[in-house]
Every structure is written in C-alpha cells, then in structure tokens.
Design goal:
The protein is mainly alpha-helical. The chain is built from five helices and no strands. The protein has one domain.
Length: 101
Amino acid sequence: MSFEEIELLRKRAETFLRNALYLINENGAERQLIRELGGENPKMLVLINEVRNLHYIARIEEAYISSRYLPFKYTVEEVKDISRFVLEVFKPLVDFGISLA
C-alpha cells in the first residue's frame, strides 16, 4: 500500500471517528432511529427485534464501513444474500414507512 493510500485511509478513519462520536453524543445511532420510526410504524421494529434481521443490519453497516475505509472484497454469494435482504425485507418496510408520511 502506498503512502498516499495509507494517508487517505487515515483521514477517512479520523472523519468516521469524529462522526461516530458526534452521533453517540447526540443519540443519533441508526438503530435508535429505527426505534423512533417504530413509534410511527411498528412494523419497522422487525428490523431490530428479530435476530436474523439485526444480523443483516449489522452486515450492511459493516459493508458500508469496509467499502469506504478498507481494501475489502465481498464474495458474490455475500452480495446476493445481503441484496436479497435489502430488496425483500428492508426496502419494503422503508417504502411503506415513507408512504405513511
């Protein structure tokens, strides 16, 4: 890895840390957001109350972080599995929640 790549990863990591600390201080964690949205649409709570779905939410978070800050590659099977969850479970709940607004 070149010095420029290392420096880029360092800067991204520092930005991520600042953002994470801000969210912690402001109670802005994504799962908290899901809980709050669950007050409006209880069906949203299935995303964090079912262990299987919580596993997928964590995998999506990991993928977001890894794709931005780490030289990590996913297998085709992993991408298909997470994509299936997003299309079949997550997106319908989010789209339904948006239609209620």
